[in-house]
Amino acid sequence: MRELICFVVVSFASASLFAQTLGGRAAYNFLKFPASPQLSALGGINLTNESNDVSLAFFNPAQLDSSMHTQMAANFNALYAGVKNVHWILAFRSKKLNTNFAAGILYFDYGTTQQTDASGNVEGLYRPRDFVVQVQASREYLNRWKYGVSLKFLASNYGPYRSSAIAADLGVLYRDTANFLQASIVAVNMGGQLKRYNPAEPEELPFDLQAGISKRLAKAPIRFSVTAHHLHRFDILYNDTLFNNDNGYENASTKKITLDKIFQHFVFATQILIGERVEVTAAYNILRGRELKVSNGGNGLTGFSLGAGVLFSKLQFRYARTYFQNNTAYNQIGLTMPLNKYFGLGSWGEKVGW
């Protein structure tokens, strides 16, 4: 118990120490991209959905489980304007160390862009890109607790501007299998830069303190999730006062405490399990819906996300569709495979370890 208490204390002491700025005012915001189709379908942020999908553990190390031994997830996404994204993660369990491990990468290629000087003269071409490489470990405590850590190396290359950083995620998860309940709290992106884009101007990482809970109904195949993010800061809606003033829109108050500001911290998700092979997911990210809303206009499906998965013993196939504006949605497809089913790496889960 002392080991778990020390981990929790260090996690949240570090969270306070590295409490950094929000998206739009921090570097490396590609870290918040939900590269996993299931995570996208769950609203972009989820810490507790009970699923044998190793890609969820990429964003919460405490979700890395022994049942994911030799499991590999691969997602290849073509985004707008020729942007390409690759997400890959592989997990294994060491029986000798009684520890689960994983390694993964998230990579963005933004295509080829002209490089110009301050006067607009073309100086050549360059390929901007971002990536993060990370390793993870998790362990169990007693029968209901798990804790995990992710260590990350980040790098960005925008022609003459390059930067790198190191960061860590720390998470704790509680699982009550008898009551179909999971709860977790995670501090993500704690760290600092190794190399700055501009040596005179340091940038901060997109730190976030998150907590969530999931509950499956005892007599129905339905699971509900509620996830809260940016718990270290109350007012999180990006308010572009210059744009609002120029276009006659009302600026949001930064002083009033309202229910709207409270609910902007939440993501709500539902997953329906159809037998043992099919899952259907729907979610609503309130902050995304508010930030991407067209002022003085309808919001439509902005902020909503949908997804489905077909789960076979040797392959999991998942699809997600996320709505960013009324007529703009993003589609994702991902595959998850247990390699030991293909290459005879050993028995599944706890029966074997490396």
What labels describe this entry?
354 residues; mainly beta; Porin; 14-stranded antiparallel β-barrel; 13% helix; 45% strand; disordered N terminus; signal; Type IX secretion system protein PorQ
What is the CATH third-level topology name?
Porin
Radius of gyration: 21 Å
Counting DSSP E segments of at least 2 residues, the number of strands comes to 16
Strand order of the largest sheet: 1-2-3-6-7-8-9-10-11-12-13-14-15-16
What is the assigned CATH homologous superfamily? monomeric porin ompg
Strand content: 35-45%
Largest sheet: 14 strands, antiparallel, barrel
- Calculate the mean pLDDT score and round it: 85
CATH class: Mainly Beta
> Uncertain spans, ≥5 residues at pLDDT below 50?
1-23, 347-354
Q: Which class of secondary structure composition applies to the elements?
A: mainly beta
| Helix content range | 10-25%
Shape: globular
The CA-CA distance between the termini, in Å, is 26 Å
- Number of DSSP helices? 7
Provide the number of structural domains: 1
CATH architecture, by name, is: Beta Barrel
User: What is the succession of H and E elements?
Assistant: HHHEEEEEEEEEEEHHEEHEEEH
Protein name: Type IX secretion system protein PorQ
Organism: Lacibacter sediminis
Signal peptide: 1-19
Keywords: Signal
What do these coordinates show?
It is a single chain. The protein is mostly beta strands. It has one domain: Porin (Beta Barrel). The chain is 13% helix and 45% strand. The chain is built from seven helices and 16 strands. The chain has helices spanning 2-17, 37-41, 54-57, 241-247, 259-263, 286-291, 340-343, and strands at 71-78, 84-94, 99-109, 113-116, 122-126, 129-141, 145-158, 161-176, 181-195, 208-216, 222-228, 266-274, 278-285, 304-311, 316-325, 328-338. It has a 14-stranded antiparallel beta barrel. Residues 1-23 and 347-354 have low confidence and may be disordered. Keywords: Signal.
